[in-house]
Amino acid sequence: MPQTDYTDFVSGRKLILDIAAGGVSLPVVDSTSIIKGSSDETKQIRFEVDGLTTTTTRVLTPQDKDYILADKADLDSHGEGHITILPMSYDSIGQGNWILGIHTAYYTNGRFYNLGGNDADNISYKVCLSVGTYTLVFMNLNGSDACITDIDIDGEEVASFDCYATSGVNVFPKQTGIVVTTAGIKTLKVRVDGKNPSSSNYYCRILYLALWRTA
């Protein structure tokens, strides 16, 4: 015979739903069961299925381990500690001929750059960000022919760096206080946006990018 041990469950130990051989067949239907706290019966859990499409059955299959259920807001609050983006790991090129050049003088023994150097050249990366405040580092090789580089997240400019210098130097300018208001997969775009009046070209030499959450 099937047995349902609600006493043990209410006391905080276990719930027994046992369909013995030759007993009552599935499904077990109970539209009124409520799980109550072991010490405070005002704390209750009830399963609701009214949101399902008519005639639809959803199956809940627990993993063979203990775990905690959390809502989406709680999951969104657990963000990334640190994201490092290598320039070759791009998602799409919006404009320009982006290539990898090897050189031992550069911090990463090479640079990823827009061959020919044209205004509005751009390349995009995909990153998964939680809601929060971030700091961004744009490691690059500046120079007398370098551009002004803007960084966009989902079409909104969040940082701008003038990469001009009289001689090529490895630099890692930082932008703090970047606020992400919605969690999810974002498009991070590196974009040429003009140049310093003293610069002779629009080169953007990416060594790497990094993002980390600060709040």
CATH superfamily of the largest domain: Galactose-binding domain-like
**Distance between the terminal alpha carbons, to the nearest Å?**
56 Å
Please give the number of β-strands.
16
Q: Mean pLDDT, as a whole number? A: 83
Q: Overall 3D geometry?
A: elongated
Q: Strand portion, in percent?
A: 35-45%
Order of helices and strands: EHEEEHEEEEEEEEEEEE
The total tally of domains equals: 2
Low-confidence stretches: 1-22
What report would you give on this structure?
The protein has 215 residues and is mainly beta. The protein has 2 domains: 1-67, no CATH class; 83-213, Jelly Rolls. Helices cover 5% and strands 40% of the residues. It has 2 helices and 16 strands. The longest helix has 5 residues, at 6-10.
Secondary structure layout plus pairing:
Elements: E1 3-4, H1 6-10, E2 17-18, E3 35-36, E4 44-45, H2 72-76, E5 83-85, E6 92-95, E7 97-102, E8 110-115, E9 122-129, E10 132-141, E11 148-153, E12 156-162, E13 170-171, E14 174-180, E15 184-192, E16 205-213
Antiparallel strand pairs: 1-2, 3-4, 5-16, 6-9, 7-8, 8-16, 9-15, 10-13, 10-14, 10-16, 11-12, 11-15
Descriptive terms for the model:
Jelly Rolls, mainly beta, single chain, 40% strand, 215 residues, 16 strands, 7-stranded antiparallel beta sheet, 5-stranded antiparallel beta sheet
Task: Describe the structure concisely.
The protein is mostly beta strands and 215 residues long. The chain contains 2 helices and 16 strands. The longest helix is centred in the first third of the chain and has 5 residues, at 6-10.
